Amino acid sequence: MIETENPSSIRLDSIDINIIRQLQNNAKITNKDLASQLELTTTPIYERVKRLEKLKVIETYVALINPVKVGKGLMALCMVRLEKHTKEKLAAFEKHVANIPEVVECYHLAGQYDYHLKILVRDMNAFQHFIVNKLSTNENLANVQSSFVMSRITDTTAVPLTEES
Amino acid sequence: MIETENPSSIRLDSIDINIIRQLQNNAKITNKDLASQLELTTTPIYERVKRLEKLKVIETYVALINPVKVGKGLMALCMVRLEKHTKEKLAAFEKHVANIPEVVECYHLAGQYDYHLKILVRDMNAFQHFIVNKLSTNENLANVQSSFVMSRITDTTAVPLTEES
DNA sequence: ACTGAAAAACCCGCATT
DNA sequence: AATGCGGGTTTTTCAGT
């Protein structure tokens, strides 16, 4: 069995893990509240958070928006296959996709498909426009298999944390 | 053509859109900075943000964590098909999946598959454990088609905003 | 690596227009 | 709906352990 050690070699103790756990759920929690939960004062909390930010364990803090309330009620998932897989063709496709604002996720895959895309649009009409006028203008595209999200059972930005970090 | 009006009927002007745009990128921006960018004082910014929170346009504020740096270096996408689609069987599967911490996304789909799952684990070994001991313990599962993320071209939590909101 | 305290910056309500 | 001010919190720094 291959051991997969944390490649970035960042030592996180249980206090760090707890801080991350809290901030993943609510970035607005105060150092004071964190401190009282962890039975510390604000200074070590402050310094630990700054350290996690500096190490890029914490990448950013963001507001999460309800897409329905800003007129983006349709989420689609597209599994994409390309014709050719040369380095240049892959890079060209990635550049193409990176410039389409409707695409909120684009992952290069190992498996049956080449790319997974997550699309946020107003409605099916806007989706058709995306497919016809935006995605399929890339010459190397072979085929796209789309699915539409009816309901979200789980949808979290929080990375599941175990004590082995 | 069917007109799809914003179903929640929330009127957002360009100042609101700009506030949301900023907060989607950086939740830590101060009202003061937002105010100077939008050429206002802090009070209207404060009141608009509070309104957006109250209307649940802004759902929460979260810290985004680099999964690699906390030992979750493997992301997998699973397309799931179930045997039976009765209301009870679907609800049972959803409840099952909602209790697996490795599952950060579970969407019920219209299309060729029933569910899309996004999985975050340490490595392939942990993924196998997830499949064998966690996911496939649901009796109604027919088959799972897994893909593995090699690279992320785009990966944002920001909803693309147009002026028609 | 932590405590405790103090300085600086910001949040948030209020009076006003 | 906006401005401007002021009290209360929070963030951030610092001396001491």
TrEMBL record, chains A, B:
The keyword DNA-binding applies. It comes from the Bacteria. Keywords: DNA-binding, Transcription, Transcription regulation. InterPro entries: AsnC-type_HTH_dom, Dimeric_a/b-barrel, Tscrpt_reg_AsnC-like, Tscrpt_reg_AsnC/Lrp_C, WH-like_DNA-bd_sf, WH_DNA-bd_sf. One of its GO terms (cellular component) is cytosol. GO terms for molecular function: sequence-specific DNA binding. Residues 12-73 form the HTH asnC-type domain. GO terms for biological process: response to amino acid. PROSITE patterns: HTH_ASNC_2 (PS50956). PANTHER family: LEUCINE-RESPONSIVE REGULATORY PROTEIN (PTHR30154), TRANSCRIPTIONAL REGULATOR AZLB (PTHR30154:SF34). This is AsnC family transcriptional regulator. It comes from Marivirga lumbricoides.
